[in-house]
Design brief:
The complex is a heterodimer of chains A (428) and B (367). Chain A has 428 residues and is of the alpha/beta class. Chain A contains 18 helices and 15 strands. Helices cover 44% and strands 16% of the residues of chain A. Helices cover 74% and strands 5% of the residues of chain B. Classes of the chains: A alpha/beta (428), B mainly alpha (367).
């Protein structure tokens, strides 16, 4: 009896100890590494440092919670996450795109956080409609939204001015593929510079560009289980771009880093890239060795019938296993998500758009650099229909579009092959 | 005498026990980390096995027999013809016939000729398969990926061997300076693939790379090495040669230092110096080392992954997509680990063939 009592006392002692020890939350994210980001969320610059400063602040301010940021890189991020799930050791909280969410949610990998959001002070009525849709799969909410991001038209105003393409302090945007070509010609003739730079050779920026132009013609790349890539609309979209390559007004061989460099070095009038570079470029412009001096950000132009640009969301998800087996840790992970969510304005400094109505309407948000220039972007956001095969389909498009502009393949043939490959995926 | 006879079996048993004691740690590691994963891989390759779905629910794996293999390697309406890939097929046929004739004339190494005949005939036969009218491969990317991998090996293995051989010949001197150079050239070998590819991505960059800057000085326009279909494969081969030069060079240096100085002295008396001595003395004496290096390089380069994954992402348009990267993508991006395991088995067979080749060549050398 004495032994049992002693055992119980010891067990009770251990239990108290466990309760007192901080809960360690393993957090996975991309956005790049930032050492010494500190905990001041108001002064950091660029995606990597802003997100890390928010995480560091959460680590400091949420009582009893210690956050361990796992090292992962952008290119292999989802491979890494899947491998962790396969090894039954997923991160306790991780960033996930709206486009990638169905693959995880459809097999029950993500926790249904909807019913628990109130407990950490998240009011879903403050979310934009797009944000709500982004994190919902079926009837459940599987993540906490962090931002909305889209492809933009980044402009070097000095080059545009020299080419006579500025009116009332704003760049004149093209309204058709023909106008696009005419502008490109004008820029080349008057300044000797390229009109457009983008990553057409590695990451799928070129894919997103072509997709936007397909959507602008009210078409899409698949409809239900039917691939619809070999269409006149897709061909129009591709030709709107390839005419720039043919004329020597853009270089399809630039990759992500080189296209950014070309724009910053003042070698191209326009850069097509996401909103995530806005904060960084705003800072770069101030440096004396950067050729880009007058930077303007515009909503993606409308070249066909309706406006559209590629867009996605970053959201934070928690594994279903955590909610089921370790409610305490699950709650702690949710608190971390809420902390990040509450720093939505800080995150918006990257250039990303807020997902909270209260932030969007705040004067502080509207006063962020260049924000007013692309304020219309959320209203023209589009994407492919939701699918568990998003990344695979994107890769098919990337390879086949590359074959057009990097290896000179006939666009019609390439689109037919892309259609057949995507159909194979949809048939699985 | 009788005492010895009585004792021998007991000693033999004791020897055997001792042997087991020494072997057990190796065997445990070997079985746990090589034999078991191999058979598990084989097992997975016979299933429709979604990485995420099976992680959530172990019953989600579905037995499909050899369907993963047929999906990869076969197609609809596949026909055979002697001229499906005329250039390669005719070349392979010429190699096989040529080797056969030389073998009959009895002028060359027997096993080498037999290997050439078998390899030539196999290439001729296998490349004869192609989709007929209205037909298609089930997996359009698999065979082109295999082709890219073979092209990579065909460039990187001889490239590394020749470069390492020339370097070793130049550095095979007993001076302090040469020792420093040897260390410098070996240094690249110790770097990880991420560092190596980062260095070379910067080197090859058309906007800020060293090569582009040098080209500009001479008035040329820089090449986009990593995104130009003509140069992407060459670029990753150059990177690979630079990276894997060290070990090959050290092996050659060791081989060269084994060649007796007297042979060179005798050759020098016959006026064979420099290039002549290298051709007539060094090369023939290094034959076995060269074979070893070539086979090791072949086995190593079939497993290329990082260079393609990090420098070109398999592009442009899959021109640098290699087998291990396809396995990786299929397993982790597409979650189709069953199909990926089938591809891994295919790679295993290729490497097993080259390992067997090395084994036979080494044995023949001993004989």
């Amino acid at each position: 009896m004495k032994r049992i009592a002693l055992g119980l006392a010891l067990a009770a002692g251990m239990a108290t100890n466990v309760a007192a020890a901080p809960i360690t939350i393993n957090l996975a994210r991309f956005f790049g590494a930032c050492e010494n980001a500190g905990t001041d969320t108001h002064t950091t610059v660029g995606e990597a440092c802003i997100i890390q400063s928010i995480i560091n602040a959460a680590n400091e301010k949420i009582p009893g919670v210690k956050i361990n940021t796992l090292p992962t890189d952008w290119g292999n991020y989802y491979d890494h996450i899947k491998a962790m799930f396969a090894a039954s050791n997923p991160p306790d909280i991780f960033v996930i795109h709206r486009s990638a969410l169905p693959e995880f949610a459809s097999i029950g990998a993500l926790a249904d956080v909807g019913p628990d959001l109130k407990s950490v002070g998240i009011d879903t009525s403050d979310w934009t409609a797009g944000a709500k849709k982004a994190v919902t799969y079926g009837k459940h909410i599987y993540a906490v939204p962090m931002d909305f991001h889209a492809n933009l038209w980044h402009v070097n105003m000095d080059i545009m001015k020299k080419a006579g393409l500025v009116k009332d302090g704003k760049p004149i945007l093209p309204h058709s593929p023909a106008e696009l070509l005419a502008q490109a010609k004008q820029v080349k003739e008057k300044t000797g510079k390229d009109y457009l730079a983008a990553d057409f050779s590695q990451f799928p920026i070129g894919v997103r560009l072509v997709l936007s132009l397909i959507w602008q013609q009210n078409s899409n790349i698949f409809n239900g289980h039917k691939a619809t890539i070999d269409t006149p609309q897709a061909l129009n979209a591709v030709e709107a771009i390839t005419q720039l390559f043919k004329g020597g007004y853009a270089d399809p061989k630039l990759n992500y880093a080189d296209s950014q460099q070309a724009f910053l070095n003042g070698k191209a009038a326009v850069l097509v890239n996401g909103d995530w570079v806005v904060g960084d470029f705003t800072n770069q412009v101030k440096k004396p060795d950067v050729a880009l001096k007058h930077y303007y950000v515009s909503t993606f132009p409308q070249l066909f019938q309706s406006p559209a640009t590629w867009a996605d969301n970053h959201t934070w998800a928690i594994p279903a296993s955590l909610k089921k087996h370790d409610p305490k840790k699950y709650h702690a992970a949710l608190e971390v998500a809420a902390f990040i969510y509450n720093h939505n304005l800080d995150w918006a400094r990257t250039g990303h758009m807020s997902v909270r109505k209260s932030v969007l309407n705040s004067s502080a948000y509207k006063a962020l650099p260049h924000r007013s220039e692309y304020i219309d972007t959320p209203s023209i956001a589009k994407d492919v229909p939701r699918t568990v095969h998003y990344n695979k389909i994107q890769d098919v498009l990337n390879r086949n579009l590359q074959s057009i502009w990097l290896t000179g393949k006939d666009p019609k043939k390439a689109l037919a092959e892309a259609q057949s490959e995507v159909q194979d995926i949809l048939d699985q | 005498m009788s005492g010895t006879i009585r004792h021998r079996p007991r000693r033999r048993i004791a020897d055997r026990h001792v042997a087991w004691v020494f072997l057990t740690p190796f065997l445990i590691v070997y079985v746990a980390f090589l034999v078991y994963p191999f058979f598990k891989g084989l097992w997975i390759s016979l299933h429709h096995w979604n990485l995420l779905a099976v992680a959530m629910n172990p019953d989600a794996a579905k037995w499909v027999g050899l369907r993963n293999y047929t999906h990869l390697m076969w197609g609809r309406g596949i026909v055979w013809g002697p001229l499906s890939h005329p250039l390669v097929q005719l070349f392979a046929l010429a190699v096989a016939v040529g080797a056969g004739l030389l073998h009959r004339a009895g002028r060359t190494n027997r096993s080498f000729m037999i290997t050439l005949i078998v390899a030539g005939a196999l290439v001729f036969f296998l490349l004869g398969f192609t989709p007929g009218e209205g037909g298609r491969w089930f997996d359009r990317r698999f065979w082109p990926t295999v082709g890219n991998t073979i092209l990579f090996v065909a460039l990187a293995a001889p490239g590394t061997t020749i470069a390492a051989l020339l370097l070793a010949a130049a550095l095979n001197r007993e001076t302090k300076m040469m020792a420093v150079f040897r260390s410098i050239f070996f240094l690249s070998q110790v770097l990880s693939v991420t560092v190596v590819t980062l260095i070379w991505q910067i080197m090859f960059s058309p906007t800020q790379g060293l090569i582009a800057n040098v080209t500009r000085i001479f008035g040329g326009s820089p090449i986009s090495w990593l995104t130009d279909e003509r140069f992407a494969m060459i670029a990753i081969v150059i990177t690979t040669i630079w990276w894997s030069l060290g070990i090959a060079m050290i092996l050659f240096l060791a081989g060269m230092q084994d060649i007796s100085a007297e042979i060179y002295e005798a050759a020098a008396l016959d006026n064979a110096r420099g290039w002549k001595a290298f051709w007539y003395i060094t090369l023939p004496n290094l034959k076995r080392t060269i074979t070893l290096v070539v086979v090791l390089q072949i086995i190593l380069h079939f497993q290329v992954f990082g260079q393609s994954h990090l420098m070109t992402q398999g592009g442009p348009d899959d021109r640098t997509q290699v087998l291990v990267r396809y396995i990786y993508q299929t397993a982790f991006r597409d979650s189709e680990i069953g199909r990926a395991a089938a591809m891994a088995m295919f790679l295993f067979v290729i490497m097993a063939v080259f390992s067997a080749l090395q084994f036979f060549i080494a044995r023949e050398g001993e004989e």
